[in-house]
């Protein structure tokens, strides 16, 4: 079991050593991704967010999560993966990254997998929907292959437009 | 972990201690500063000096323990100086006062550095040298010679309250030596004692006059006490008319003074021993705290409280005793309060502090959030209920739930409220320094400092207020010579007051200076090409100084000013939930600036509007009116911009559906509604589809988890649980104004 809280994950990633790590796996297009379970706050069903004008299409808006205003991004739209349908089966992963709470829409959430260090390989240069800079490695469980994501880096990246960048327009 | 080794080993992980120390040190420094500023330089109150001494001592002790040697070093010298002052071995000079204030600043910076808020370690060398220099320079001069006075109080019109008498005597014992004489504390009686003081007769009289009318005070210059009296000294007896006798032992007062907790200001008043007169004619003094007192009252007379010798043994009789104690209780408790008032706010604050706990702001914010949710959930349930017309027990329950939820919300919001004294406390220092710098005499009078407002506003309101006070000193108050020539007292006055009016806190900065110069303002307006009717009334003329670039420094006075003008003050106030700035001035008589801001930024009076399928929220303070649009109301200019004529004004039209690109964009012009708003950017007409209502909304920041968006100031959660955006009208109106200007 890994110790440490959401904030301390960088340590757990680097110095994982003998520790087993848990990942939440989800599907996006044809690929299966895994993110550090400690970054996941909860999983919710889809609800129509309040639209914010003049934002890219993949930013769906903001929702009220028990009194907290949380932005929702649709990763399917962001990475041009398939059709973005919204129904009762659409899931939103509420993430806790960089002291922020954000929601991410994915195709489906599969399960929580425990990986031993031996099951994690460095990411080779290969083509995925996501840039390699956000990929920390590849995990294998039985016949499945999991692309392990640095979700914090992804969500706070300039591309996502979720965080005020230094040169923000005012 | 302490970065320096001394003492940290024993404590192990000191991070908790350090956090506590940082907070306490800040409080102590603030206490030192506020006490220093209210000190009467000619006759400093010894209790005040003690309070500062204890504060400095406390910082010194803890910083030493944590290994913050540089802080220990400064407070050590400060403590030396204070020690001499409180013992009366040194006169309080302006220089000493300044040095102590600066030492306080230094400690503040040192603490900030240790906390990591400052990048560079402040250099305490100069201030330490100066302090040490002062301490050493006059160390050889020796203490002021103590003078001996024989005091006779009486004939008394009425007996003096025993507790007050004790307080007075212990106060004197603090200042020097007291030798009690015959004390006949009864109507027509006299109280005699001798004191040895380093202070003058005036000091002595001022202390005495706290309990005895001035005409009953007789102070005889140094001289030997009559021999007859000396005999009595060994056995001083006071008979008060209630049959009680009190014995005052100066040595004992000293002891009690020392035994006081080393925490400044706080606690001391609550724990202040109060003399309790129990029937006795033997040497017997009983000091109890109010708590002890109450406890004793419950369990009856304790052995010590019983008289040791016969006399009027009131306390021996159980039936009489409660009454006696009852009377005493009412006598003593108010006298503690009286003392608190007399000592400035010290006592009151002490009592308040003892009954409070320190809670992190994040915890309070969490509470606010949760309660907000509760209220929304309740609203949803109530709506459901109305739809379904259910069981009456449910509806009664729901009504109760609603009431409780709202009461809870109110109570939780009140936790965020702090008295405005937290802002006002910095002004005595500012006024002192600025008036010195400008060579003016200014007295600051503060009132209404207990008015409460949201702690989130503290920072935001401090700068504008500082600017206003600075303006008053710089431009308002004249030099003493000018004032005298104008037939005014040489010393000017600035009044700083706060009061609550409805949902707003109104802060007034008033001075009795020379007021605004109408002629100069009009001249300056002409220079800047601002057209104004020369016969316009004063109110209109004063509004000009709020124009951008209309620097008061250049126009109203010739004193070279620095920094920002009134336009910035107004803008900074306006962004606070639609705050307002008003100004009244009479030439020669002074200027009053009134600042009005909402009590809290967490809750806002709002109007919600529908645009397409979306709901937007406008701050109600900015809404002037709304009107249904008739055919032909809106005039297009060459197919580009549009204006709406409202009475004599042409207002730029903002189609919210265009700004926010809502789904069914084209809000119908006819049958649509124009909401006329005013913001710092001017007026504009916002086109919306419908008005949904007015309500209080809980303001939520959008950039906590997301980022700032142009045109949106924040968000809120509506009754149906959905998020609605609160519009940044300043941005939207400015945008409209720019657009309109570009089109012309």
Short overview:
The complex is a heterodimer of chains A (170) and B (744). Chain A has 170 residues and is mainly β. In chain A, 9% of the residues lie in helices and 42% in strands.
Structure, described:
The complex is a heterodimer of chains A (170) and B (744). Chain A is mostly beta strands and 170 residues long. Helices cover 9% and strands 42% of the residues of chain A. Chain A is built from three helices and eleven strands. A six-stranded mixed beta sheet of chain A has the order 8-1-2-11-10-9, with no helix packed on it. A five-stranded mixed beta sheet of chain A has the order 3-6-7-5-4. Mean pLDDT of chain A is 81; it is low at 1-17 and 166-170. Chain B has 744 residues and is an alpha+beta fold. Chain B has five domains: 8-141, Four Helix Bundle (Hemerythrin (Met), subunit A), CATH 1.20.120.160; 147-348, no CATH class; 361-416, Helix Hairpins; 421-598, 2-Layer Sandwich (Heat Shock Protein 90), CATH 3.30.565.10; 603-743, Roll (SH3 type barrels), CATH 2.30.30. The A-B interface holds A 49-55, 61-64, 66-71, 100-102, 161-164, 168-170 and B 369-370, 372-373, 614, 659-662, 700-712, 715, 717, 721-725.
Note the topology.
The complex is a heterodimer of chains A (170) and B (744).
Chain A: H1 9-14, E1 21-28, E2 31-36, E3 40-45, E4 59-65, E5 68-74, H2 75-78, E6 91-97, E7 100-106, E8 108-115, E9 120-121, E10 135-141, E11 144-149, H3 151-155
Parallel strand pairs in A: 2-11, 5-7
Antiparallel strand pairs in A: 1-2, 1-8, 3-6, 4-5, 6-7, 9-10, 10-11
Chain B: H1 8-11, H2 15-38, H3 46-66, H4 69-86, H5 94-115, H6 125-137, E1 147-153, H7 162-175, E2 176-183, E3 191-197, H8 201-208, E4 217-220, H9 227-233, H10 250-259, H11 268-271, E5 274-276, E6 286-288, H12 290-299, H13 321-342, H14 346-354, H15 361-388, H16 392-415, E7 417-419, H17 421-424, H18 427-438, E8 442-447, E9 452-454, H19 458-476, H20 480-485, E10 492-501, E11 504-511, H21 518-527, H22 538-543, H23 552-555, H24 566-574, E12 580-586, E13 590-598, E14 603-611, E15 614-619, E16 623-628, E17 634-637, E18 641-646, E19 649-655, H25 656-659, E20 673-679, E21 682-688, E22 690-698, E23 712-717, E24 723-727, H26 729-743
Parallel strand pairs in B: 8-10, 15-24, 19-21
Antiparallel strand pairs in B: 1-3, 1-4, 2-3, 5-6, 7-9, 10-11, 11-13, 12-13, 14-15, 14-22, 16-20, 17-18, 18-19, 20-21, 23-24
Helix pairs in contact in B: 2-3, 2-5, 3-4, 4-5, 4-6, 5-6, 7-10, 12-13, 15-16, 18-19, 19-24
């Amino acid at each position: 079991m890994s110790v440490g809280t959401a904030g301390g994950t960088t340590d757990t990633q680097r110095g994982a050593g003998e520790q087993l790590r848990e990942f939440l796996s989800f599907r996006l297009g044809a690929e299966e991704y895994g993110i550090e379970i400690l970054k996941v706050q909860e999983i919710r069903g889809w609800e129509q967010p309040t639209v914010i004008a003049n934002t890219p299409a993949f930013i769906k808006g903001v929702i009220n999560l028990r009194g907290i205003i949380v932005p929702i991004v649709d990763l399917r739209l962001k990475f041009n993966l398939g059709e973005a349908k919204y129904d009762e089966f659409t899931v939103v992963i509420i993430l806790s990254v960089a002291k922020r709470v954000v929601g991410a829409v994915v195709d489906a959430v599969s399960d929580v997998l425990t990986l031993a260090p031996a099951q994690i390989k460095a990411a080779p240069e290969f083509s995925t929907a996501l840039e390699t800079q956000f990929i920390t490695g590849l995990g294998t469980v039985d016949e499945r292959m999991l692309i392990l994501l640095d979700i914090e880096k992804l969500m706070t990246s300039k591309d996502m437009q979720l965080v005020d960048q230094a040169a923000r327009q005012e | 972990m302490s970065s320096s080794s001394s003492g940290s080993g024993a404590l192990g992980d000191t991070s908790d201690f350090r956090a506590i120390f940082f907070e306490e040190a800040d409080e102590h420094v603030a206490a030192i500063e506020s006490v220093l500023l209210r000190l009467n330089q000619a006759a400093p109150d010894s209790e005040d000096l003690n309070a500062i001494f204890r504060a400095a001592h406390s910082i010194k002790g803890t910083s030493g323990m944590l290994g913050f040697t540089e802080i220990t070093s400064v407070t050590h010298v400060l403590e030396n100086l204070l020690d001499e002052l409180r013992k009366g071995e040194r006169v309080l000079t302006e220089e000493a006062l300044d040095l102590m204030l600066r030492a306080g600043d230094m400690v503040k910076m040192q603490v900030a550095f240790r906390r990591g808020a400052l990048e560079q370690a402040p250099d305490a060398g100069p201030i330490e040298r100066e302090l040490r220099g002062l301490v050493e320079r006059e160390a050889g001069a020796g203490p002021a010679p103590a003078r001996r006075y024989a005091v006779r109080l009486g004939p008394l019109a009425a007996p003096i309250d025993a507790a007050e008498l004790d307080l007075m005597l212990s106060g004197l014992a603090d200042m020097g030596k007291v030798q009690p004489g015959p004390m006949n504390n009864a109507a027509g009686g006299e109280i005699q004692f001798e004191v040895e003081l380093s202070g003058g007769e005036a000091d002595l009289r001022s202390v005495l006059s706290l309990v005895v009318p001035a005409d009953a005070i007789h102070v005889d210059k140094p001289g030997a006490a009559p021999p007859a009296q000396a005999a009595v000294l060994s056995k001083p007896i006071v008979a008060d008319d209630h049959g009680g006798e009190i014995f005052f032992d100066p040595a004992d007062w000293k002891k009690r003074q020392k035994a006081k907790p080393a925490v400044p200001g706080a606690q001391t008043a609550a724990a202040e021993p109060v003399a309790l007169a129990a029937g006795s004619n033997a040497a017997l003094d009983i000091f109890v705290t109010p708590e002890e007192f109450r406890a004793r009252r419950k369990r009856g007379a304790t052995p010590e409280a019983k008289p040791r010798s016969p006399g009027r043994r009131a306390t021996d009789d159980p039936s009489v005793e409660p009454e006696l104690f009852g009377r005493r209780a009412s006598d003593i408790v108010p006298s503690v309060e009286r003392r608190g008032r007399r000592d400035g706010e010290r006592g009151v604050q002490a009592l308040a502090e003892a009954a409070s706990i320190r809670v992190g702001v994040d915890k309070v914010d969490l509470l606010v959030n949760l309660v907000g949710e509760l209220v929304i959930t309740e609203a949803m349930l109530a709506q459901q209920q109305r739809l379904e017309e259910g069981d009456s027990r449910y509806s009664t329950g729901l009504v109760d739930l609603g009431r409780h939820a709202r009461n809870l919300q109110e109570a939780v919001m009140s936790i965020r409220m702090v008295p405005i004294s937290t802002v006002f406390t910095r002004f005595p220092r500012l006024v002192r320094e600025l008036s010195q710098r400008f060579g003016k005499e200014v007295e600051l009078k503060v009132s209404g400092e207990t008015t409460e407002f949201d702690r989130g506003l503290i920072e935001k309101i401090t700068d504008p207020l500082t600017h206003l006070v600075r303006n008053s000193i710089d431009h308002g108050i004249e030099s003493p010579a000018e004032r005298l020539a104008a037939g005014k007292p040489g010393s000017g006055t600035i009044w700083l007051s706060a009061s609550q009016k409805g949902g707003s806190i109104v802060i007034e900065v008033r001075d009795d200076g020379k007021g605004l110069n109408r002629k100069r303002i009009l001249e300056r307006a002409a220079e800047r090409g601002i057209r104004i009717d020369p016969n316009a009334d004063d109110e209109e003329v004063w509004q000009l100084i709020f124009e951008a670039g209309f620097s008061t420094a250049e126009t109203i006075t010739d004193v070279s000013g620095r920094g920002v003008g009134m336009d910035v003050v107004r803008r900074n106030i306006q962004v606070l939930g639609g705050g307002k700035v008003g100004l009244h001035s009479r030439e020669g008589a002074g200027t009053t600036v009134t600042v009005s801001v909402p009590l809290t930024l967490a809750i806002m009076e709002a109007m919600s509007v529908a645009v397409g399928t979306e709901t937007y929220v406008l701050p109600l303070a900015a809404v002037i009116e709304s009107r249904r649009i008739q055919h032909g109301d809106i005039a297009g200019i060459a197919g580009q911009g549009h204006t709406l004529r409202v009475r004599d004004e042409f207002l730029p039209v903002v189609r919210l559906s265009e700004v926010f690109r809502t789904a069914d964009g084209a809000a119908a012009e006819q049958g649509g509604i124009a909401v006329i708003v005013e913001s710092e950017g001017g007026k504009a007409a916002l086109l919306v589809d419908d008005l949904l209502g007015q309500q209080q909304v809980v303001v939520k920041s959008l950039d906590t988890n997301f980022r700032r968006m142009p045109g949106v100031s924040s968000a809120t959660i509506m009754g149906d649980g959905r998020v609605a955006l609160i519009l940044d009208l300043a941005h939207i109106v400015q945008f409209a104004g720019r657009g309109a200007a570009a089109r012309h």
